[in-house]
């Protein structure tokens, strides 16, 4: 089973930046579209950004122009550069496969907490 390890979260002021990283224990990581998701307290998990195996990206409207997703297949790692952070970006951030089918998801990692103060 693939293990996902997220890192890079923290406490930042509104307008600040953070760079998240997620490493997967998969030798075929490069074959899969990957995504960053987030879950705020009392809310459902939502997709924030996705990147295909061919590096095509897509973003939730709420983060377009502020967040950038990237991947390094040689390191089995996906990144999320977050700029111009807002208090509403506060959530636990997770990475996983970019898919609509729950059965295709890998086991969730522990996530990384992002807290943006106003």
Q: Which key features would you list for this structure?
A:
mainly beta; 6-stranded mixed beta sheet; 4-stranded antiparallel beta sheet; globular; 0% helix; 118 residues
Describe the protein in words.
- The protein is mainly beta and 118 residues long.
- The strands form two sheets. It has a six-stranded mixed beta sheet, with no helix packed on it. It has a four-stranded antiparallel beta sheet with strand order 1-3-8-7, with no helix packed on it.
- A hairpin with a 4-residue loop joins strand 7 and strand 8.
- 31% of the residues are buried.
Major sheet characteristics: 6 strands, mixed
Strand order within the widest beta sheet? 2-10-9-4-5-6
Helix content range:
under 10%
Overall shape: it is globular
SS content category: mainly beta
Unreliable runs: none
Number of strands: 10
